[in-house]
Amino acid sequence: MSLAHRGVLFLDELPEFPRHVVEALRQPLEDSFVTVTRGRQTVRFPARAIVVAALNPCPCGHFGGQDGRCHCSSVVLERYRSRLSGPLLDRIDIQLRLDALPSEQLRGGPQGESSQHVRHRVQRARDRQLERYADLAAHCAAGNGDASVLTNADVPMPELRRRSPLTPPVHDLLLRALDAFGLSLRAHDRVWRVARSIADVAGDREIGADHIGEALQYRWFDRAGQSLAGPNCAVP
To answer: How many other C-beta atoms lie within 10 A of the C-beta of residue 203?
Structure first.
């Protein structure tokens, strides 16, 4: 995590890592630093990285397919799911389920936006965040803080609430989802942050119901009851 500071750490086949190793990610995902204590010495390393993880839906990788190739029992599925704890998944802001592409979609060239176009939109969103938190970044630099405030992920939650408040109807939507999906208070704040970033990418000054709804769609494990084998669900 520390070597990936201000970069990307990609973990493939996440459930195949030893559980104690995966659980060790919880502190840096929450606090953005790693603390190592040996004897009487304690050292803290910066660890503000974008963590990207991938996993199969089951040990054989075929669960949910239309060909019926998966023969994993419910016991095997539950054992596989239990390798990832709820507190760890709670710290992953964007969770997506990707189904296998039908073979006919492999014909022709790639669809959608080019990487250059996406990069341009992301850069504009980053510029908006730099402008929004310019005073906080200057204050942090003057105080020799651990990390400058550069993005929505960096800003303390009280400041995000003050600078990007939710209107009562929009906050009501988030609170209803909190009850419907059993979201934690941590997830409440993380959905708020993701919604702020979605609004920045769209060029919208305020966070709207559509931004909150999209951020909630990305909490797949919460919507599927934290089950790797759960069905796709939609936000009501």
So the answer is: 10
State both tokens at 191. Answer: 């959905």
Residue 231 belongs to some domain of the structure: no
Task: Identify whether the C-beta of residue 48 lies closer than 8 Å to the C-beta of residue 7.
Answer: no
Dihedral Cα 126, 129, 130, 133, nearest 10 deg: -160
Q: Give me the tens of pLDDT residue by residue for the chain, a chain 236 residues long.
A: 999 999 999 999 999 999 999 999 999 998 889 998 888 899 999 999 999 999 998 888 888 776 778 888 889 888 888 888 989 999 999 999 888 777 777 777 677 889 999 999 999 999 999 999 988 877 665 555 545 678 998 899 999 999 999 999 999 999 999 999 888 999 999 999 999 999 999 999 999 999 999 999 999 887 765 444 443 333 33
Domains contained in the chain, number? 2
Global pTM reads: 0.84
Whether 143 and 82 share a structural domain: no
